[in-house]
Amino acid sequence: MKVLTVFGTRPEAIKMAPIVKELEKRENIESIVAVTGQHREMLDQVLKIFNIVPDYDLNIFKPGQTLTEITVNAMLGLEKILDETTPDVLLIQGDTTTVFSSSIAAFYKKVKIGHVEAGLRSGNLYSPFPEEANRKLTGVLANFHFAPTNSNRENLLKEGYNDENIYITGNTVIDALKYSVKEDYHFEEELLNKIDYENKKVVLLTSHRRENIGKPMENIFQAVLDVVHENDDVEVIFPVHLNPKVREIANKYFENEEKVHMIEPLDYLPFSNLINKVYLVVTDSGGIQEEAPALGKPVLVVREETERMEGVLANTAKLVGTKYENIYNGFKELIENKKKYDEMAHAVNPYGDGTAAKKIIDILEEEMN
Fold first, then answer.
1. Which of 129, 152, 171, 153 is nearest to 304 (CA)?
2. Which is the catalytic residue, given 95, 175, 291, 310?
């Protein structure tokens, strides 16, 4: 069986790396890896960490590229790869423009499609944008829906998908964490080694979503700032996204704050190990909502909707939106209310046990034979 795995961004690479590694173990599978390069530098970092050398690299990244450019360039490149490799099945993960483009390209060639992390839904087609549309459109074309959780399966059933094509596997991000996190990890960024994680309540902040840029992000930063000023034992580590608009707002609020450490974006390995060391996470990102609970860290989700409601329902994450008062109150509670913090820190992670990649490839082998 020929399996073509395609990904293009850092989050995709992290979640597909365990699958690529599992495919490499199978003697009866020919594994072909293609990357679009939708992200460039951040993608390359993950490839290096997991020691993955792509067979094909479309290298489509251009500064300021539009969604249309990404879609068209990825499809054109993938068409050639599909013609050359003639795979039995295409494996794609998540909700990026690379995923959408790959599914269309494979559909046109009548290649079967396996969608890893299927069934996530926020319920709002424009939030997150364009990810919500990407995953719904990909679902229409997929033959195998690898859903991380039962609620993801329920989402797909509500949309009319056949239950026989839906498989609950857990999330491969947990597989990747097991590979990455070490208790004795030493950071290259010396500042991160000097922080007192034992005696301080160190908070990891990430914020970069398109829909939060502007007033929502200002609300997030102001609320974080106010809680930091009110609590002597709180420090914040903020890897600042490369987006100039994000950096402009971050500098406005945090430039002269001693207890808010703005650093450059981290590679996957130090970032995972940083999650393991901090007290809690404040984020508008997606994958961190899955990773942090696996390491016993409560997550404050600063978005209006999340497609990862399992964490909210399991009490590993709290969705507070982007209004100042809600962010401030939610953050303050987790810092000052030990009982509430412990309830979240010790809740059971709903995203699996770290064997998702093996389950997915076992299913493919059984179903494709």
1. 129
2. 95
Q: What is the DSSP string of 85-108?
A: H--SEEEEESSSHHHHHHHHHHHH
Check if 115 is active-site: no
**Which residue shows structure tokens 């996530």?**
120
Please report the pLDDT score of residue 352 as a whole number: 87
Burial string for 7-36 (b: 16+ CB within 10 Å, else e) reads bbbbbbbbbbbbbbbbbeeeeebebbbbbb
Q: Is 135 a catalytic residue?
A: no
Query: Rounded CA gap, 315 and 343, in Å?
Result: 8
30 is catalytic: no
Low-confidence ranges of the chain (pLDDT < 70): none
Residue 65, C-beta contacts closer than 8 angstroms, at least 6 positions apart: none
Angle at 292 between CA 189 and CA 270, to 5 degrees: 20
What integer pLDDT is reported at residue 40 of this predicted model?
A: 85
3-state helix, strand, coil in the chain (%, to 5): 50, 15, 35
Q: What is the pLDDT of residue 226?
A: 97
Question: pLDDT at position 39, please?
Answer: 80
Alpha-carbon span 299 to 205, nearest angstrom = 10
Question: Residues in the chain, how many?
Answer: 369
pLDDT of residue 63: 87
